């Protein structure tokens, strides 16, 4: 068992609980920065059965003093910065918030480490959204960036400030350029979970149609549980570096959706409605990653196919929706 200490921001999101579970299983003490919210935000930690094992520290990424406090309390060997306003569509409505949390606040994390804990290894959650209007058919660590959303622009700042603190101050700071990754813990606003939740509701008779935007968009989708392993591997290397994490397979939203409907023996075309309300001001039409460097240097490879992933998500939503409908009957 490692006996190490880790600090995770974004502990209540999709990736935070999977990463926390991985670290707990390796014997880490796991601290989670938790932002104050009016409603419950710990359901994912409960679903993985680890809510009671996390040492929570109150704080917000936009409050630099709370990050300094968190670093001083957790004394982390490893700091994973997963917190973000991560919904691309919302970044056009809240561009300044997105820039502050996803961009500037990364410097809050790095400064807390530079000044108070320079030995701590740092992981920054960068994104394939930075490739945006793609400049190469398959994107790798050398592909030029061309972000297409306020989200992507803000994340680009977070990426480069991480590289800069590594080069300027010798911090062990790595940036994981992760392509889309999903799971049964995915937020309902993202397209895969929106689809699997709708498929479950349609199958169980509580919804009649599914309304989507641009179904021609293509994404390189993997499983979040596989991807958090890559985050950890990056921080175990002697040298900090940047890595693309992807499956190397791209699929249209349309085909992903069809997989979900077929999983419950339904035909997508009977239920799908295109609604321009979900089109974006500027779209990332296609993403396709090349994870060769991660495979060679980290020994990392994805383990889960899109069919397995979407099947597991639909099954989880069937269980949730059935429980919800049952609760309504007995209430
Ligand atoms: P997510 O489910 O949206 O989780 C975001 C987390 O950030 C939540 O725990 C949220 O807390 C927290 N947060 C938001 N604003 C905060 C603030 N001001 N202070 C402190 N915490 C704050 O995102 P995810 O899918 O787990 O993704 C994790 C990270 O990877 C994000 O940075 C995302 O941009 C990046 N990324 C994700 C993907 C992907 O496909 N999932 C791909 C590439 C990169 P509340 O729960 O309290 O709101
Ligand atoms: N959310 C959503 N809802 N997306 C839709 C819909 C819809 O009704 N209809 C079509 N889409 C299309 C979007 O236009 C986009 O092209 C694609 O489905 C994927 O959308 P999201 O699932 O919202 O993910 P994203 O690719 O914009 O962003 C996710 O991946 C990034 C990595 O590339 C997020 O997790 C980001 O935080 C992450 O950085």
Short overview:
This protein has two domains: 5-181 and 222-245, Rossmann fold (3-Layer(aba) Sandwich); 187-219 and 249-287 and 304-330, UDP-galactose 4-epimerase, domain 1 (Alpha-Beta Complex). The protein is 41% helix and 15% strand. The chain contains ten helices and 13 strands.
General description of the model:
The chain is an alpha/beta fold and 331 residues long. The chain folds into 2 domains: 5-181 and 222-245, NAD(P)-binding Rossmann-like Domain (Rossmann fold), CATH 3.40.50; 187-219 and 249-287 and 304-330, UDP-galactose 4-epimerase, domain 1 (Alpha-Beta Complex). Helix content is 41%, strand content 15%. It contains 10 helices and 13 strands. The protein has helices at residues 15-25, 43-47, 64-74, 95-116, 150-169, 191-203, 224-235, 253-263, 292-298, 306-330, and strands at 5-9, 29-34, 55-58, 78-81, 121-127, 173-178, 181-182, 210-212, 218-219, 222-223, 242-245, 251-252, 272-274. Helix 3 crosses helix 4, helix 6 (191-203) packs parallel to helix 8 and helix 8 crosses helix 10 (306-330). The longest helix is centred in the C-terminal third of the chain and has 25 residues, at 306-330. The structure holds NADP nicotinamide-adenine-dinucleotide phosphate and guanosine-5'-diphosphate-alpha-D-mannose. Residues 86, 88-89, 127-129, 179-180, 189-191, 194, 212-215, 217, 219, 253, 278, 280, 283-284, 287 line the site of guanosine-5'-diphosphate-alpha-D-mannose. The site of guanosine-5'-diphosphate-alpha-D-mannose (GDD) has 24 residues, from helix 6.
């Amino acid at each position: 068992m490692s006996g190490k200490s880790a600090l995770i921001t974004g502990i209540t999101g999709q990736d935070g609980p999977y990463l926390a579970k991985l670290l707990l299983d390796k014997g880490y003490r796991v601290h989670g920065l938790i932002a104050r919210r009016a409603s419950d935000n710990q359901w994912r930690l409960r679903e993985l059965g680890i809510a009671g094992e996390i040492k929570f520290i109150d704080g917000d990424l936009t409050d630099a003093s709370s990050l300094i406090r968190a670093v001083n309390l957790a004394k982390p060997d490893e700091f994973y910065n997963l917190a973000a306003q991560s919904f691309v569509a919302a970044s056009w409505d809240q561009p300044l918030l997105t820039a502050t949390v996803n961009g500037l606040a990364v410097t809050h994390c790095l400064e807390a480490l530079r000044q108070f804990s320079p030995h701590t290894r740092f992981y920054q959650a960068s994104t394939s959204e930075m490739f945006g209007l793609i400049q190469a058919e398959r994107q790798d660590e050398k592909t030029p960036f061309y972000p297409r959303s306020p989200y992507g622009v803000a994340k680009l700042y977070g990426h480069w400030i991480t590289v800069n603190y590594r080069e300027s101050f010798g911090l062990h700071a790595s940036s994981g350029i992760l392509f889309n990754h999903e799971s049964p813990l995915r937020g309902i606003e993202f397209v895969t979970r929106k689809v699997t939740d709708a498929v479950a509701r349609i199958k169980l008779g509580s919804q009649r149609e599914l309304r989507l935007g641009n179904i021609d968009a293509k994404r390189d989708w993997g499983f979040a549980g596989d991807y958090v392993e890559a985050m950890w591997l990056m921080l175990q290397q002697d040298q900090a570096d940047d890595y693309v994490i992807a499956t190397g397979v791209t699929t249209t939203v349309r085909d992903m959706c069809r997989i979900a409907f077929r999983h419950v023996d339904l035909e997508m075309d009977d239920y799908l409605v295109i609604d321009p309300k979900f089109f974006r001001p500027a779209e990332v039409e296609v993403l396709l990653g090349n994870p060769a460097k991660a495979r060679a240097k980290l020994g990392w490879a994805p383990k889960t196919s899109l069919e397995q992933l979407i099947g597991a998500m639909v099954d989880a939503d069937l269980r949730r929706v059935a429980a919800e409908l049952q609760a309504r009957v007995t209430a």
